[in-house]
Write a structure and sequence with these properties.
This protein is of the alpha/beta class. It folds into 2 domains: 10-63, Roll (2,3-Dihydroxybiphenyl 1,2-Dioxygenase, domain 1), CATH 3.10.180; 73-132, 2,3-Dihydroxybiphenyl 1,2-Dioxygenase, domain 1 (Roll), CATH 3.10.180. It is built from 2 helices and 8 strands, in the order E-H-E-E-E-E-H-E-E-E. The protein has helices spanning 21-31, 83-92, and strands at 13-18, 35-37, 46-51, 54-60, 74-77, 102-106, 109-117, 123-127. The strands form 2 sheets. A 4-stranded mixed beta sheet has the order 1-4-3-2, covered by helices on one side. It has a 4-stranded mixed beta sheet with strand order 5-8-7-6, with no helix packed on it. The longest helix is centred in the N-terminal third of the chain and has 11 residues, at 21-31.
Amino acid sequence: MTGAPIAVTGFSHVAIAVTDLGAARDFYCGVLGFEELPRPDLGVPGMWLKVGSLQLHFIETDEMPTPGRGFPHYALHVPTDEFEATIETLRQAGVPFLGEPSSRVDFGTTVLAAFVNDPAGNFIELTNVGPS
């Protein structure tokens, strides 16, 4: 490859497909506490949400993508000292978990992880591994 080096320095946003925008808004804003941002009319129903300094973009669709091998998911950061309380709050809100939360050691650091589904069936990992 020739030319100038590629200058990718991080993520701008992640786009997520959902089948019911209202249910997604209730879950992500009502349960998880994300903030809705203004979104231009792009010709398809959707919403943009702010989480920390990042954004999640949602697009309403009639048909969800078929999950493939490798357990497709995205991860949201939950600080270590708030992890257990967050898990308990989600349980009380009736959010479905895929098994019990777990921990492992990666490179000498204890990693906490729990997996939940949003109303459209997207897999979300909640982890204390934060953005760097």
